Amino acid sequence: MARTEPKKDVVIVGLGWTGSIAGIELAQEGLDIVALERGHDQSTVPDFQYPQQIDELKYGVRLKMMQKPSQQTLTVRRSGDETALPYRSLGSFLPGNGVGGAGTHWNGLNWRPMPEELRLRSYVAENWGEDIIPEGMNLGDYPVSYDELEPFFTRFEKVAGISGKAGNLNGEIQEGGNPFEGWRSEEFPMPPHRATWDSQKFGEAASAMGYHPFTASAGIASTSYTNPYGMQMGPCNFCGFCERFGCYQYSKSSPQTAILGALKQYPNFEYRTNSEVLKVETAADGKTATGVTYWDEAAQEEVFQPADIVILSSYQLNNVHLMLLSGIGGPVYDPVTGDGVLGKNYAYQMNGGVSLFFEDEHFNPFVGHGANGIALDDFAINQNDFGALGFIGGSYWRSGTFNGQPIRNMPLPSGTPSWGAGWKEGIGRWYGHAMSIGSHGSHMAYANNHLDLDPTYTDRHGRPLMRMTFNWQDNDLRMNQYMKSKMEPLAASMNPDSMQSGFKDVGAQYDVRPYQTTHNTGGHSMSETAREGSVNRYSQAWDKHNVFVMGAGNFVQNTQYNPTGLVGGLAYHTVNAIRTQYLSNPRPLV
Amino acid sequence: MKTFLRILAGLVLVGVIALLAFIFVPVQRTQPATELAADWQPAEGQGKMVLDAGDCVACHTSDEGKSLAGGRAVASPMGTIWSTNITPDDDTGIGTWSYADFRAAMIDGVAPNGTHLYPAMPYENYRLMTEEDMRALYDYLMTEVEPVSEPNKETALPFPFNQRWGIRAWKWLALTHDAGFAPAGASDAQDRGQYLVESLGHCGACHTPRNAFMAQDGVTAAEDSFLTGGVVGGWNAPALRGDAAGIKDWTVSELADYLATGRNAHSAANGEMSLVIEHSLQKLPDSDNIAIAAYLKGMDGDAVDLPETLAAAGPTATPEAEADDAGADTAEMLVSADPGMPLGARLYSDNCLGCHFASGKGAPGIFPELQGNSLVVGSEVSPLISVILNGAELPATEKRPMTLRMQGYADRLSDDEIAELATWLRGAWGNDAGPVAAADVADVRSGDSTH
């Protein structure tokens, strides 16, 4: 150990959304805090500034904002029979890098889970009996309810600056909102966005079929906005450079627009970049952590940072990896025996969609934003009859242009040549004439999808890589096929010149190469008892009471929505518990 | 003939004696109108408030230096003047100054050794301070500030400005007003605002034009030229009263927001004003910024409503404004996206419209309005050019902790293009200001301009 830093009250590992939330809420308590960030510092200007940011090749294709596999990666296999190999070229999911983390390069799709999703095992048992739960599915209840989390969802939405229209205000269904959502104590902090032409067409077709379309909620500012910390957003100009990009317009919800400037005002807070945490150190009695060891890239040395409270707020994959390396979060899960908890309940997302081509329509795909669109929840988890349908799950649908970037967004009718003169002709004929409808579906946790340490491969610090064992499961694939069977008639009702579907079917194997989604969840899941998960209802490690673990790794199974809203709500729930219960008397809170 | 020479010699002698007397006979210090009791104590926090409101830190601290230890270069038309160490260090600061010494510097512009201070030190305005604030500030500097040993840099202006006795002559012309503050009596809040504006805040030092002798052409609201706009270092300090005032369409509340946070529904602070906000105004109590705003809006007799708070915590969602009548034609042209638009409008569409919108109204609190913006339509064009070339940064303030930066376009637009764009901006949405030449842009780009 080359160096030991003076002790802090709190060390935060990873300065993205949840690290920033923990930082500012605990800084308000007067605690002495240091945040350690593996990546570089970054601000709207100069790092995301116009026009340099509007570079699809650099950011969209070459993934300038993402974690580099040489920096950190994991190995992947589809089953225990395969040998996992390193994820050397980013494809299926894109972990972020640098201050702000994935909160800088997301699309801004901010959703709350449905109340039923947080008590899904009980919901299933009450309505259809536990017998319908397929063999090998780890269906669980979250140890915290929607009602308990509601104030924290609201808090996060105010901080992050979310636009939308409430569909359920304190139980009263509201015109224009999502009638199937969980209750909200308040209206969204910003009004919903205006609709682009494709989403209008979709909304009209959906209404005609008796569905309940509404404007999707968005972590994209629809007006000028000032949040409770005094931080600001500017109204979005629909430039369409959201996912994989930082927002040059101060329009996208991010730690940069919502928290960091306010956090930096606190003299009791500091952050160190290019500081990668290697291990959480534990006390001799094993009941607490003593701090973290990190790699100081500038000094090229290991540093011990002692602290009374350790907050793990890096990306889900990195949190689980760090816990595996540090012996925090309980015994490692074994899929053969079913024993152990850490690495269990890894889940993902099951998505599909339909592309529609209209020779005579002009969709101007370059006008849009990452959370643009009209959505519907008529096939959501709380709308589906699992017993009759033969699966547990659901999805939300959405249609709205999100970018017209030329390299990656040139949808062409099937049969169009993929190169040469025929391709050029196809581009000329179809660019701007296509729209799509997406299905964003739930993904359950299963006995054989899990995370552990790889026996072979190591990272640049000599630590074992984490190993992901993951494959699609029939339950979710059946759900996906059901969405196809419902979405195609709706698409056809819009009378496109042609349409084509992309829905994985039963038998599909997980392919780590094409991008799917960066919604990796579970692995240090929360639980009612220490026997079932790694952390309790306050995201406090069952086995080390001064370690709190943020993020989607807490999920029991994934919801049908993008995870950020639940991640943000849980983070505020956790820091509230630290502030009101833990600081005055540090102990296991459950 | 002989008699004539004798008379002439006599006159020369009298002149020389008078001159010598002028140079060497000490100035009579202005005595306080009210003597405070020796055991008088300032209210809690009063000294710090005076220090903040007077913005002492901004000039008396260098970029890398310790607070109040001096060493900042203050540009003047005569050359660089170095601010001095005002920490209570005995050797290099003001540790040996008596209260009377301190008071004389603040009110008469004279150091204890009789040296006349350059009027870069705004004693024209501090002259109006109350005796209580003067004492509070002195006590604060002497007891609350850590002494710093930091020798002063010698200010060396060229002849004749290095002849400090000349400042004595200048003071005959400039310090014609009585010391002490005379409230106009509009309301308690407006009187407080008047005091902060005229005296501690020394707003007139920039916002009042200078007369032929480089003195402020008026130091109180009673004088017509007071706060009708000045030019400082190539930047317009805009008029704060009259029809030319950019703030004439702002509400008291909006103006108070601007003072406390550097931003409001219309505009964002820039240049020297952003330093004033960062170092001084954001630290004042809300009631003082509201008072200043109320005074400025009501100084020519208009009735004012006092807001109770300013820059309230969010969440607050404010839609951007649509184009108004004056800006409708420009907005319509921009939205038409006609390729035949003038080059300036096309450059605006490609580079500026995303934030400032076709309306030219920007977005409240974050992207400044360009229609009627004093920086856009000012007599001085180098600030506008500078912002386009180099961008701008609005500092974090307590109530609005976001550092807002606009990126520069120096690497993207040529001198000709920036001249086209700036010229177009100065005529768009009803703006009515003269053109900008490519040579002006070249000067700013190369650093030859005053800015």
From TrEMBL, chain A:
Q: Where is the Glucose-methanol-choline oxidoreductase N-terminal domain?
A: 233-330
* GO MF terms, alphabetically ordered: flavin adenine dinucleotide binding; oxidoreductase activity, acting on CH-OH group of donors
One Pfam family linked to the record: GMC_oxred_C
Record keywords, A-Z: FAD, Flavoprotein, Oxidoreductase
The protein's matches in InterPro entries, at most eight in alphabetical order, are given as: FAD/NAD-bd_sf, GMC_OxRdtase_N, GMC_OxRtase_C
- Specify the Glucose-methanol-choline oxidoreductase C-terminal domain's residue ranges: 447-568
- Coiled-coil segments: none
Gene3D superfamilies, sorted: FAD/NAD(P)-binding domain
Family assignment from sequence similarity: Belongs to the GMC oxidoreductase family.
> What is the name of the protein in this document?
GMC family oxidoreductase
Upper lineage is: Bacteria, Pseudomonadati, Pseudomonadota, Alphaproteobacteria, Rhodobacterales
Automatic annotation (TrEMBL), chain B:
Q: Primary place of residence?
A: membrane
Database matches in Pfam families? Cytochrom_C
- Residues the record lists as binding heme c 3: 352, 355-356
Cofactor binding, note field: Binds 3 heme c groups covalently per subunit.
Which keywords are on file for this protein? Answer: Cell membrane, Heme, Iron, Membrane, Metal-binding, Repeat, Signal
Q: Which domain of life is it from?
A: Bacteria
Q: What PROSITE patterns does the annotation carry?
A: CYTC
The record's annotation in InterPro entries points to:
Cyt_c-like_dom (IPR009056), Cyt_c-like_dom_sf (IPR036909), Cytochrome_c-type_DH (IPR051459), Membr-bd_ADH_cyt_c (IPR014353)
Q: Which residues bind heme c 1?
A: 56, 59-60
Q: Enumerate the GO terms in the molecular function aspect.
A: electron transfer activity; heme binding; iron ion binding; oxidoreductase activity, acting on CH-OH group of donors
- Which PANTHER family does the UniProt entry name for this protein? ALCOHOL DEHYDROGENASE CYTOCHROME C SUBUNIT, BLL4482 PROTEIN-RELATED
User: What is the name listed in the Swiss-Prot or TrEMBL entry for this protein?
Assistant: C-type cytochrome
Q: Which organism is it from?
A: Mesobaculum littorinae
